[in-house]
């Protein structure tokens, strides 16, 4: 990590803020950057708790329709991370960061005022564009304000914000949803305005790279459309029929668009997915496992919320507090997992994390019943899944990012994040497709949990095989 952090930022010393001023502005810059990164990450978790109330209050929409409130955000956020990073390099990180904050804040207000689900989905997509601009630019802004000797600490603090947001998301979402689901989005408005007011004066200018090319928007459009069509086919499979022309046509169009996307990325100068990175075996293996693990992770989070609110009929606040112990385990284990990776290697630690995660879901399969019994049923499963995520996700992200050359650190991070968002979309879509079936809730949820167990164990096996497979000669 130290080499990855030092080379790109060393280039900024000659053209960025003076060292003395950078040191003085570090605290304020970190606070303003943390606000934006926390907002973008909270929004991925906080809305889960509000989802049942959103569907109920906006015309009693079905779960398959309301799920697009999650998926629209995840698809666009993941697809635009790399292009947004290119924009930050070309035009300067501070301007792109503040522009992302402005777009995210306005879209949050629009989400809070949305009169129906489908306008809410549109505004969520705009939110995702703002979030995608914020996240990669925020690191450039932070490094420009950080003295060289503190940059590794700053990067660790920057990455820890995501874990803290994941831990706080369910509980905060429950509290806000009790006051009304619109507060889930309104909470972003004062934070965004505060950053926009203070940012121009307190955030340093990160150097722009005048030779950087324009971002790959056609590639982003292709992958967004492909993943959107795949999600549509999975979510609507039960309603339309898995062999219907609509489902088969959506899947066929997805395959065609993905083929076009790969062909485009092989020719584009600054592609959304740099194919050269996939030739680095540790990066490719960890990114694939990251995508696969995001499927059960996203499905687990949504299933726990839906079970508590629809089967046990708990309030949003009680549900948020009930779900919180699992995510709270993630930052704790992320901080302690480094020695394990050093001793046993990322593949074994990831496999162990997947097994623990699957054990948590297995506990739910064995103990969760319609009669609420949180201490003996949901809580042990939440803790086990939290331990599994804490061992797996930081390990996969670290294995991917530390395997790329220093000058590709930002792009590699964005590709890993994109893989995780694509997996989350597929996880939500798969769970929704199962829960949309009519039948006894216990039986239907148990089917979803068996799918989560299966995809988790597949992740472990695939990563063990691909990571340890010897590279081809040359």
From TrEMBL:
Q: Where is this region: Disordered?
A: 1-20
Compartments, as annotated in UniProt:
Cell membrane
Does the keyword field hold RNA-binding? no
Q: Which domain of life is it from?
A: Bacteria
Q: What residue intervals traverse the membrane?
A: 26-46, 66-84, 96-119, 125-145, 157-177, 183-203, 215-234, 240-262, 283-308, 314-335, 347-366, 378-402, 414-436, 448-466
* Gene Ontology MF term list: transmembrane transporter activity
Q: Is the keyword Chaperone assigned to this protein?
A: no
UniProt xrefs under InterPro entries: EmrB-like, MFS, MFS_dom, MFS_trans_sf
Of the GO CC terms on this record, one is: plasma membrane
UniProt-listed CDD domains:
MFS_MMR_MDR_like
Q: Which UniProt keywords apply?
A: Cell membrane, Membrane, Transmembrane, Transmembrane helix, Transport
Which PROSITE patterns does this entry report, sorted A to Z? MFS
Q: Where is the Major facilitator superfamily (MFS) profile domain?
A: 29-471
Q: What is its main location?
A: membrane
- Its topology with respect to the membrane? Multi-pass membrane protein
- Give the matching PANTHER family: CONSERVED TWO-DOMAIN MEMBRANE PROTEIN-RELATED, MAJOR FACILITATOR SUPERFAMILY MULTIDRUG TRANSPORTER MFSC
The name this protein goes by in its record:
Putative multidrug resistance protein EmrY
